[in-house]
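#structure-requests
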Amino acid sequence: MSELPGGGSVADTYQHVSKLMTPADGLRLPGAYLKWYDLRRAELELSEEERQQARDFLASTELPFDDELGFVILHKCTPTFSFLLVQTWRGENELWETVFAKDDDGPFQMHTFPGDHRGTFCVWEMGAVWHEAQAWSRYLASARDDEARKTYVEDRFTGVV
C-alpha cells in the first residue's frame, strides 16, 4: 500500500493539548457505586457548582443499575460544553456506557450520536478508561469480596492525559 487512508481525519489546523484528569468523591446511586473523574484543560476551571449540578442530575435519573460498580467522567470540553459519561461493568468484563451532554447553562440531556458508527471515548477520556480497565482486571482476579471492592473503589487515576 503506497498511501494509507486517514489523512482527512485530523484537520491541518488542529493543535493537540494535554488535559488534567482528577478524581473526586465517588457517587452512590440506587444500585450502583461510581468513581468520579473530572477532565479539563488546565486553563478551564471546573467549579464545585458544576460538579454538584452533574451529581444532582445523575441522582435524579433512573438509570437501570443492578448492584454495579463503575465510574463517571465529567469532561469539560469547552467553557460552555460538557460531557457526562457514565460507565458500569456488566457481564463480568464489559464496559457499558450512557452519555449525557450539557451546552451553555442548559440541563444535561441524553446525548445521541448520528448513524451506526459512533464515537465512544476521546483520547483524553481513554486515560481513565485504561486505568479503570486495569483496576477492574485486578478486581476480577481477586477474591471479589468486600475488601476487593473497596480496593477497586479506592484505586483512582490522577494525572495529565
